[in-house]
Design brief:
Elements: H1 5-140, H2 145-158, H3 162-169, H4 179-183, E1 189-194, H5 200-214, E2 218-223, E3 230-235, E4 238-243, H6 244-263
Parallel strand pairs: 1-2
Antiparallel strand pairs: 1-3, 3-4
Length: 274
């Protein structure tokens, strides 16, 4: 077989031209496109990595903010709970104080009512007993009750110990001490007060006893309704008194004590569950 070297050479030249053409117009653009593609992919990968880093940083920041928010929420809840408990304690204490003040006011009001009732009962008891005593003494005695009280006052005046007599007499000059005494000016006033008027004879008798025991002085008689069944002799601030109340005071105190005992009920404030 004969070799056509011209044909071989031509084919070789064609191959070389084809390789050059492929290298010049096909391979280099493909490589350039591949390089550009790789660069774009690398840029996208780098951008993705950057975005991932940013997302991770944002996630970390979000987690930190969430943790801080949880801590702040827990702190606010704790403060609100403590403030609520403190307010509840203040309200309970205020209610307890109000209840205590109300209990004290109720006790004071009830005590005042008891005292007033006891006083009224005591006064009424004394008045009734005094009236009965006046009637009984008037019926038993041969004279009026006022005259009999004058006699009792005279007896007590004559039975006065010397220091008390001198204190009651003051600076009055005793009767029978001489002409000088009879001529001396009378400066003292003896005031006799009673619920009712005694008879003129009883008054004269009392004046004589006063002059005898206390000396020269003016004797005046006054009516004092508050002195139930009693007489009061006062000279310069010094007093000598006698009253049926002296004998009935024990009865009045006992009656008042009985009333107070009957009315004494413990004050119990209603218990409220706070």
């Amino acid at each position: 077989m004969l070799i056509d070297w011209f044909t071989v050479g031509a084919q070789a030249i064609n191959f070389l031209v084809l390789v050059w053409l492929l290298r010049r117009y096909l391979y280099k653009p493909v490589l350039a496109a591949i390089d550009a593609r790789e660069q774009k992919i690398a840029a996208k990968i780098k951008d993705a990595e950057t975005q991932e880093a940013k997302a991770k940083a944002a996630g970390d920041e979000l987690r930190k903010r969430a943790a801080a928010f949880d801590q702040e929420r827990d702190g606010l809840m704790r403060q609100a709970t403590e403030a609520g408990a403190a307010q509840r304690e203040r309200l309970i204490e205020s209610a307890r104080e109000d209840s205590g003040r109300l209990r004290v006011k109720l006790a004071q009001a009830l005590s005042a009512e008891r005292a007033e009732l006891g006083r009224q009962l005591s006064v009424r008891t004394q008045t009734e007993v005094f009236a009965l005593t006046r009637k009984a003494l008037s019926e038993l005695a041969g004279t009026s009750l006022e005259d009999r009280m004058v006699e009792v006052l005279i007896e007590r005046l004559r039975a006065l110990p010397e220091p008390q007599r001198l204190a009651l007499a003051g600076t009055a000059a005793p009767i029978g001490s001489g002409a000088a005494a009879r001529g001396a000016a009378v400066t003292q006033v003896a005031l006799v007060r009673g619920a009712d008027d005694a008879s003129p004879a009883a008054r004269t008798h009392l004046e004589a006893a006063i002059h005898e025991r206390l000396g020269a002085m003016v004797v005046r008689f006054e009516t004092a309704p508050e002195l139930v069944c009693g007489l009061e002799l006062s000279v310069a601030g010094q007093k000598l008194a006698w009253s049926v109340a002296d004998y009935l005071s024990t009865l009045a105190r006992d009656a008042t004590a009985i009333v107070a005992t009957e009315l004494a009920a413990p004050i119990e404030a209603p218990a409220h569950a706070l």
